UniProtKB/TrEMBL annotation:
The lineage of its organism: Bacteria, Pseudomonadati, Acidobacteriota, Terriglobia, Bryobacterales. It comes from Paludibaculum fermentans. Catalyzes the epimerization of the C3' and C5'positions of dTDP-6-deoxy-D-xylo-4-hexulose, forming dTDP-6-deoxy-L-lyxo-4-hexulose. This is dTDP-4-dehydrorhamnose 3,5-epimerase. GO terms for cellular component: cytosol. Pfam families: dTDP_sugar_isom. Its EC number is 5.1.3.13. The record marks 158 as: Participates in a stacking interaction with the thymidine ring of dTDP-4-oxo-6-deoxyglucose.
Length: 182
């Protein structure tokens, strides 16, 4: 679905680049409504165990059990999946394998952070859950040399009328997917 078919989304005019780098879950540079929490990993000599979410605690506490959906996406090294947004749905992301360069952009004209971009490096080296509210464009690039796995919860069942897509190279967003530390 093209972003032009959904009149409530306005493409901002962003400065080229990756926006604000987020290194702490409580960063003051986060897009309004985006929330981050570390998730624990219990490792031993057999491997590791991690919790995706507890529906009565943390970032998923407000997700209604009747409509919460759990999904997963395996993405190959170097692939970019961006940009995607929802009008009503909230996503809760947890990278369970590999590393992602997560790109967020605020597409909500009435938001105090409209047009702000965030970049987060998330996965095995930085085990964070990310809550992405409606109206925040989101996408990622798999970094490293192995595929990466995203497990995510949504507070609503899949509805194609609630989502839209914007090209990863949309000039208004001007996100720089190239290697940053050249």
């Amino acid at each position: 679905m093209s972003s032009t078919t959904i009149p409530t989304i306005q493409i901002p005019k962003c400065e080229p680049g990756i926006g604000k780098l987020i290194f702490q879950p409580d960063s003051t540079d986060l897009i309004e409504g985006v929330r981050i929490e570390p998730h624990p990993i219990w490792a031993d000599d057999r491997g590791y165990f991690l919790e995706i979410a507890r529906l009565t605690q943390g970032l998923g506490a407000d997700f209604p059990p009747a409509t919460t959906q759990v999904s997963a996406a395996l993405t190959y090294h170097g692939a970019i999946k961006a940009f995607h947004f929802h009008l009503h749905q909230t996503d809760l992301w947890c990278v369970t394998q590999g590393m992602f360069q997560v790109a967020l952009v605020d597409l909500r004209p009435d938001s105090p952070t409209f047009g702000l971009k965030n970049t987060l490096y998330v996965g095995q080296l930085r085990p964070w859950r990310i809550l992405i509210p409606p109206g925040v464009g989101h996408g990622y690039k798999v970094i490293g040399i192995t595929p990466a796995m995203l497990v995510y919860l949504t507070d609503r069942l899949y509805n194609p009328k609630d989502e839209g897509r914007i090209a990863y190279n949309e000039p208004g967003i001007a996100y720089d997917w190239e290697l940053q530390h050249k």
